[in-house]
Amino acid sequence: TDPFIVKKFARANNNSVRGFEVIDRIKSEVDKVCGRPVVSCADILAVAARDSVVALHGPTWEVQLGRRDSTTASRTTANNDIPSPLMDLPALIDNFKKQGLDEEDLVALTGGHTLGFAQCFTFRNRIYNETNIDSTFASQRQENCPRSGGDSNLASLDPTPALFDSKYFSNLVSKKGLLHSDQALFSGGETDDLVKTYSMNLRSFSKDFAESMIKMGNIKPLTGDQGQVRVNCRKVN
């Protein structure tokens, strides 16, 4: 097994994280301009993430550059480090704390679910068995996510999946969080107040999201002589 597909196929991401061919095209064009591989795939991903948010009417931030690409990978580490959609609030807080991120980072970064979709198997138990969920919302999601089968059927994580806004948080206040881990942020715990604030104040959410993205981008980056600059983002040189 190619070790460099581990993040892509980690449990929380498998068949959900897409667009890798876009990164390949960006890498090819950047290398043409530079004459050789001098910009890492890690930096390209960081810039692409920022530019995607901006394109969908979200905030901008200065991406710190100079990352190098890893030469090792672990599917076990990816599975352990990427938050599970089944996690309760204490587990989410602990998961983020292990990376040096606090509760504000947790809520702000999870607010990235203002964009995108999730697969049926990640929210099936919530829409059929949980009680802290709006009944109409649950019924609507059940139409495209049967009790068995249809595991890869998609549902949007908020009502406007291609727009960076605060509706993700409004959904949580209305008990319409799609994932168990989404609704955990507004379930009578210590993050409730911040969810309420973000639901009413897009500017505050946007500001905190940008700051947390910078903070997350500084988690143990490879720099200097560490790692390598990959020729092909899909494999080690």
Overall number of domains? 2
Task: Please tally the β strands and state the result.
Answer: 2
Q: Which strand order does the major sheet show?
A: 1-2
- Here the CATH topology of the largest domain equals Peroxidase, domain 2
Fourth-tier CATH superfamily name of the largest domain:
Peroxidase, domain 2
Instruction: Provide the gyration radius in Å.
Output: 18 Å
Give structural notes.
The chain is mainly α and about 240 residues long. It folds into 2 domains: about 80 residues, Peroxidase, domain 1 (Orthogonal Bundle); about 130 residues, Peroxidase, domain 2. Helix content is about 45%, strand content about 5%. The chain is built from 12 helices and 2 strands; from the N terminus they run H-H-H-H-H-H-E-H-H-E-H-H-H-H. Strands 1-2 form a two-stranded antiparallel ribbon. Helix 6 crosses helix 12, helix 7 crosses helix 8 and helix 11 packs across helix 12. The radius of gyration is 18 Å and the shape is globular.
Write the layout of secondary structure elements.
Blueprint: H1 6-9, H2 20-34, H3 41-55, H4 75-81, H5 89-97, H6 103-110, E1 117-119, H7 120-129, H8 135-142, E2 154-156, H9 167-173, H10 180-183, H11 192-200, H12 202-217
Antiparallel strand pairs: 1-2
Helix pairs in contact: 6-12, 7-8, 9-11, 11-12
